[in-house]
Amino acid sequence: MPILHPAFTILLIILILFSFHEVYGNEDKKTSLGIWIVAIIMIVLSGLRGNVGADYPIYRSFYLTYFPTIEYSELIDKMLMRKSDLEIEWMYVMLNKFVLSFGGPFQSFTFVSACITLGLKLWTFRKDSPYPIFSALLLFIPGYFIADSGHMRQALGMSMCILSYQFIKERKLFWYLLCLYVAYGFHKSAIIFLPAYWLVLIPLNANRIFYAIITCVILSPFQIYKLFSGFLGSLNLQDVSNGYNGYIGYEDKASSFMDGTMILNSFLLIVYDKMVCKRVWYYEYLRNILVFGVCLYFIFRENPVFSTRLVGVYIGFAALVIPNIISGIDKPNVKRFWHLFFVCFMIFYYFVFASYQGLAGRFTPDTYKNFLWSY
């Protein structure tokens, strides 16, 4: 039976054990020790990887040969939306050039990237999730491997979008737009998150959520996203290599594994909406973001790239929404049932991922390398 490298297997076990401590322990006393341990392990395994991840070779080549040839004046033109021949996002190039200026090898950049992407996510989990390590467990497969340890540009952009939730919650429009601008500088697809500041204010309830999702499911076969093909094409979702497309191709076709995940998310959002709204502060904001992500997923379902890459930032909020739903359930046995359900789901997903994307991304025992012990 295919498995991931023992380091990832041990990390999964640590996440599961800590999550049981969170859910079965005192929710009012969240400690930082567990999340710090998890953060360090996740950053080391992602940041110091060697030739691991679908886009690793092409990004290493860019870092060493292409980005040094780009002048800062070109980046400034791109930053100020002036006419420029530079096709890759300016903020990503700027970060590469900053790290390269210290003379470090490519793993220096992957380490910095991992510190930013995982640091921002886990900090947000610590702040806005009742069970931060449970949130990290939900992030682990597949987001940690595909984004944080794979397609770094989008991971950086998505992490800035997740950070911007703080300013959505505090209704600070300027800082929210600044986060989105930086996110867009890392990856153009971040622009899809722009409406989130206003979407969170839409009054929803279980019935409205149900009808919205059902409507999008019905519209799915009609591929209405083609009406915006010009705008969507400008987001350059195909990126710099075909690695990612092969990476996700196993589970993003009709009747895919992802469909089941979206249906499960929809069920939780609808069934427990009223209860959780009464018990969890700002849950409505998180809920609206995820509802919009589920709706977008079904709208883009016929396009495997759009339905994963484009809506990934919205779907990523499931790692915050699900723990808040479980925390807001007033019956301890039901709360523990759902926690155990998702633990079992992540164990199952571990083997699914190891059998397909784990091999393609070089995360298996015979392919994964880390500079702490492999070089």
Automatic annotation (TrEMBL):
<feature type="transmembrane region" description="Helical">
    <location>
        <begin position="35"/>
        <end position="52"/>
    </location>
</feature>
<protein>
    <submittedName>
        <fullName>EpsG family protein</fullName>
    </submittedName>
</protein>
<feature type="transmembrane region" description="Helical">
    <location>
        <begin position="173"/>
        <end position="197"/>
    </location>
</feature>
<feature type="transmembrane region" description="Helical">
    <location>
        <begin position="98"/>
        <end position="120"/>
    </location>
</feature>
<dbReference type="Pfam" id="PF14897">
    <property type="entry name" value="EpsG"/>
</dbReference>
<feature type="transmembrane region" description="Helical">
    <location>
        <begin position="280"/>
        <end position="300"/>
    </location>
</feature>
<keyword id="KW-1133">Transmembrane helix</keyword>
<feature type="transmembrane region" description="Helical">
    <location>
        <begin position="209"/>
        <end position="228"/>
    </location>
</feature>
<feature type="transmembrane region" description="Helical">
    <location>
        <begin position="132"/>
        <end position="152"/>
    </location>
</feature>
<feature type="transmembrane region" description="Helical">
    <location>
        <begin position="306"/>
        <end position="326"/>
    </location>
</feature>
<keyword id="KW-0812">Transmembrane</keyword>
<feature type="transmembrane region" description="Helical">
    <location>
        <begin position="338"/>
        <end position="359"/>
    </location>
</feature>
<keyword id="KW-0472">Membrane</keyword>
<dbReference type="InterPro" id="IPR049458">
    <property type="entry name" value="EpsG-like"/>
</dbReference>
